[in-house]
Specification:
Blueprint (H helix, E strand, L loop, with lengths): L1 H24 L5 H25 L8 H15 L4 H27 L5 H19 L9 H7 L8 H16 L1 H11 L1 H6 L4 H27 L9 H12 L11 H20 L7 H26 L1
Length: 309
């Protein structure tokens, strides 16, 4: 039910966007509009999928914003317009993101510390490193890098969305995926059945860090520059996408496909509010109201389905 509701919300909001766009401009959204929406949504999709993996283990990762900040800053200041440089720095940044995530996982799993405290601390550390790397917005991303990841010529970034969805389906059916769900459902029972709980948690946080770093790279390609605070907004956005996707914060239930739909809902919602003539000063209020209504509707429908069965 939560997954169906997530995609139904996505479809309904998309239809509303098209209707408002046509009403305002007497035309339908074209390639430019859809390309803008997809390119804006991809970083949210990446970080939301990573957040989903952690939430399924009954954890949370607030450090994703810091990983994006640092990734964005490193790419903008060190990447040069050569294949070797772009490839090397992309791999290095992804490795840094995975290492940051793994560090969170080690502190949570082996140090037995609360995920919210650990990731809040690493968030502050990573934000400081990002500011040290790029004290003020600037830098330059090679145009060829931007064209490959976030081409302005069409919504080709849907290929990355498709790859993420396929990657999730593969992970969900892999040994690691099954263990992640098992830990979220009942950690004690998972441990009793021989599942290496601590190791799996480290992998889950490492995957979250890896995907957050990928989001930072894509954000860099989209904006063609760097900003040490650009990733901060994705902390709450990733959690909101997880909520809209119907992921249970009690762990063990949900699908990242719902989080992908939730990420697109949040992206399209901004466009809907714009064409609806909502004052930008009040857009956050209406976004929060929409999120609350969606969560409430999901809870009510879930109870009705359970009652009927």
């Amino acid at each position: 039910m939560p997954l169906i509701l997530a995609f139904a919300t996505f479809a309904g909001l998309t239809a509303l966007y098209i209707g408002l766009f046509h009403g305002q401009l007497n035309a339908y959204p074209g390639s430019f509009e859809w390309t803008s929406i997809v390119n804006t949504a991809v970083p949210t999709v990446l970080v939301a999928v990573g957040q989903t993996i952690v939430v399924l283990t009954r954890g949370i990762d607030l450090s994703v914003g810091g990983v994006i900040d640092l990734s964005n800053s490193l790419a903008a200041t060190h990447m040069h317009d050569s294949v070797a440089s772009m490839l090397a720095w992309s791999l290095a940044i992804l490795a840094v993101g995975a290492a940051c995530g793994a560090a969170n996982g080690i502190l949570v799993a082996y140090g037995r510390l609360q995920p919210i405290l650990v990731t809040l601390a690493t968030l502050a550390i990573l934000q400081g490193l990002a500011l040290k790397t790029l004290p003020e917005p600037g830098g330059l991303i090679p145009p060829s890098y931007s064209n490959v990841l976030a081409s302005p010529k069409g919504p080709w970034s849907l290929i990355f969305i498709f790859a993420i969805a396929v990657g999730w389906l593969v992970l969900r059916r892999s040994t690691i995926g099954v263990r992640i769900f098992a830990i979220g459902n009942d950690e004690t029972a998972a441990r009793a059945h021989g599942i290496p709980v601590r190791r799996v948690k480290v992998i889950a946080y490492a995957l979250s860090g890896l995907l957050a770093a990928a989001a930072g790279l894509f954000l860099s390609a989209s904006t063609t520059g760097g900003d040490a605070a650009a990733g901060d907004v994705y902390i709450l956005t990733s959690i909101a996408a997880v909520v809209l996707g119907g992921i249970s914060f009690f762990g063990g239930r949900g699908s990242a496909l719902g989080s992908i739909a939730g990420a697109f809902v949040l992206t399209i919602l901004t466009n809907v509010l714009f064409f609806a003539g909502i004052d930008p000063l009040y857009q956050s209020f209406f976004q929060g109201l929409f999120l609350f209504a969606a969560v409430l509707l999901g809870a009510v429908l879930g109870r009705l389905v359970k009652g009927a069965s």
